[in-house]
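Our collaborator T.R. sent over the components below with a one-line note: 'Predict the complex.' Nothing else. No constraints on interfaces, no templates requested, no preferences about which chain binds where. So this is a plain run: every listed entity goes in together, and whatever single assembly comes back becomes the starting point for the next discussion.
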Amino acid sequence: MAWATLGGIVAFTTMNPFYLLPLWAISWFVFTQQRVPGPASRSFRMFLVAGLMAVLIRTALVFLGPFTASNVAYFALEGLRLGTILVIFGTFNAVTDPFGVVRLAPRRFQEPALAAALALSIAPRTVASVRRIREAQQLRGIPTRGARALPALAVPVLEAGMEEAHVLAESMDSRGHGSGRRSRYRPQSWDPSAWAMALPALVAAAVFWIASTRGFGDLQPGTNPLHWPAVNPLVLAVEALLVVPGFLPRQGNARR
Amino acid sequence: MSARTGSANAGTARRVRTRQPLAASLRVPLLLVTNVAGLFAFIWPFVLPAMVHPGLDHRSDSGLILVILVGGLGGLLFTELGRGGLGPKTVALIGVLGAAMVALRLPGFVAGFNAFFIVVLVAGNSFGPGFGFLLGAIGMFASGLLIGGLGPWLPFEMVAVGWLGAGAGLMPGRGTKWPVRIGVLAVYGLVGGYLYGAIMNLWLWPFMTSGSAIAWDPSAALAQNLRHYATYYAATSFAWDTFRAVGDAVMVVALGRPLLACLDRAAKRMRLDVRDAVPAARAAEP
Amino acid sequence: MTTTDNAALSVRQLTFTYPETERPALIDVSVDIPEGAFALVLGATGAGKSTFLRTANGLVPHFTGGTFAGRVLVAGRDTLANPPRRLADAVAFVPQDAASSFVLDGVEDEIAYGMENLGVDPAHMRRRVEEMLDLLDIADLRNRSLRQLSGGERQRVAIAAALAAGPRILVLDEPTSQLDPQGAEHVMAALQRLVHDHGMTVILAEHRLERVIGWVDMAVGFADGRATAGTPREVIHDLAVGPPVSRLGRMVGWNPVPLTVRDARTLARLRPPHAMSAVTSAITGAPLVEVHGVDVQHEELGVPRPALRDVTFTLRAGEIVALMGRNGAGKTTLLRTMSGVLEPTRGSVVAGGHPPVPGLDVALCPQEPESILFNDSVVGEIRATLRARNLGGTDTAWLERLGIADLASRHPRELSAGQRLLVATAAIAATQAPVILLDEPTRGLDPESKAHLIGYLRTHAVEGGGAMFATHDVELAAAAATRILMLAGGEIIADGTPADVLGDSHVFAPQMTRVFGPGWLTPEQVAGAMA
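Returned assembly:
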């Protein structure tokens, strides 16, 4: 999480393509090294597409204004920045175990977080239940397609859900939920690998932030007049720090 | 011992109220403040122009601050809603209904428009605005996690869908005649479908359009910015949102009645009333 | 104080009425369950068992509402003044459907959840989790997701999760009803360890008495909301319920009534039945569904897993087939394949010369019968089926067939589990498909509903239809089936008359077979031969 947020900041502070494009490569590398199986992993591709779309759409918007070379370049670069942010968060989504994120919730958020965790763990059952009910109604000769078939599917699903909620609430109350005390099993702490993940990203973000406010490293290449953006090798090296997570062993990905 | 020391009259029934479970004890003022702050986070391009320098770099900074603001706001809202304790019933209900939202957002499961809005609409209407907000926000969060939609836009989605659910709770509910209740909720779904799209586009608008004729212009007047935004919205999202808006309304008409009946029954079952009838034998006990 | 000092659960003059009902669910119940007891709560469905269990930790009345008169003390605490969460350290409750009671995703986390709520410190919690894993013999499941567990494993995890916070009283609602005999045996053994080795108090309700009666040391019987407590023998004698051996004992006038197969064997030696009546001849009606050389493979995480292997058999008109086998043997897969919703990987399924059309040639009542009910009245369900199939006919005729005509205007969700099964079966029957399949119709089924169901199946068969049901309930198979198919690992391992197949099995033999030998299946049959 820290990695993605800080990586996002890095991208946010620059419009220089020579700083933005390496971030796509870094994201791709981290993704291939750390991916977890599941729907989120598949979504990385969606984010890539969304990132490219952002570049294209943003560039296309130039036609709504004065059409000049510098405008085209400016729009394209801004699109590239947006696309980069999308891809960085896409990587984060793809390498993160959703339950891990929920478990990070601070104490005061525990109940909403628990509700979110429940939603995540019940969702596959809901999907299975819809499939099962569709099949069951089919076996009773009831049509399962079209708008008129919806009640035959939705009502049993919801009824089953309400029953489940009641059983669940009873079970939670029976096991002391809301009795006022509270502790945590295997509390997660910032271990060295989490630091190894967050620190380099923090350094990178800080350097970029400072560089952008000081006008250092040509982070905001002017497009009027248009010129070839300069690259500061030092800044580029700092940006490379974001690649560190790709080399760490895979486990407990949530904090990243 | 409120329950047993009660009346000495044999056979008298006396009510023992159990704690109201459905997030009813929310502190209204704080809720109001946070929601106004939330609204501000969305509509800042209209009200804030004077405070932001027209310089391009600073626009980036203000965007960043905005994300932090909404994140903080979401946190504040949750802390506030969760402080008295939601209690197991609310948590379990949000879990189950949130699961339905997650399921409906899974890629490939339901094609086309976002069917999960129907869940927020009917549940908000049946269980009330507080519950509607929590369900919308938590459901969006959970589905965002699972389908990989985690990013700076998530807090906006959470707050926006939360509002949608809260609004559904403000529409006429139990006790209203069915045709009226369904009709109003369907119209609300229609309008809500557009509003959701309009407000979700708003936060991205200043970053997407600078320099063009439909752009946010920090130095311009409110009316002009509104006009620009309307053009932008009509050009980019109106058609897309129509699917959602009409879809919501159709779903409410097709499914509203049986689903609401089911939820109403569940709501009734969760709001309880225990009567302690003191029998003669025990009343006589010392 | 009238309470016995060492009572774990003390119920005094309890009368409880659910909201919006007239009749009390419990009437003037006074029961003491002493510490260290292994108590069975029994009685017909709707007699008050489940309500009674749920008073033990305050779910009644705190989760039900209603009118509550009298007093319940658990570990000395009044349940009216203490909601369930404040009794969580004293009494543990395991509901019937363990799967939907799980709050988290992993086995260890689920066990720790109750302790987190009670603020147990992390180091102690860690130790307790280990103890629970050992106590219930589930250490090998520790890193699994709850979703991947079998029914018996889930039940044991649920028990561990309920007990972890340290309560000394354990209450379970039908813990073995969804399990196959082996799974049930595991759970009962674990419970006995808790009572014998750890001095806990265990209170459980169960329909299938033959599974539990040998383990418990006291019983509370319910009839129409009134309770009697005593030894299992006394209570069963008074209540006129019991496992098959007890029913037989009452029929032939054995006193005391035997409770276990062992008891009955001793008595049977004194009075063996006459020679067995003639075995019914095989049914040779027209073939309705022909399954030929069928393989089915399920994809599991991309790896194909065979669910059925080379299955061949024919369901004929007039047959009632019981499909048996442990959980995961392929029973449901076979039913789905026969009904046409699942394509076999290899081989063929033919009904009337073509692959079966779901809902037309073959209709199936699913494992959770309520999952097909979506109307707001019972008769509405029948009408929905008739309308969908464009069939005429009177809707009430189908209700009468299942003996539920009096429920016509009720809301399906307000009915008992057994009644709901009958409603769903009526909705399935109304398709007028020649082949009716039922997937595990015995869950929560009371004797009356069971009798109605068997009656319907027989009528259907006599009228030239065919029926098949998957079940773990040996006694139902023995009583209703004309033929038994036994599956193991996706293959048919036995196919024949109940007498042949069940008499030959150690695990699946009904009690009558265990007492009197192969061929004897039901108490009625034995009693007839003794007369």
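Summary for T.R.: Chain C has a mean pLDDT of 88.
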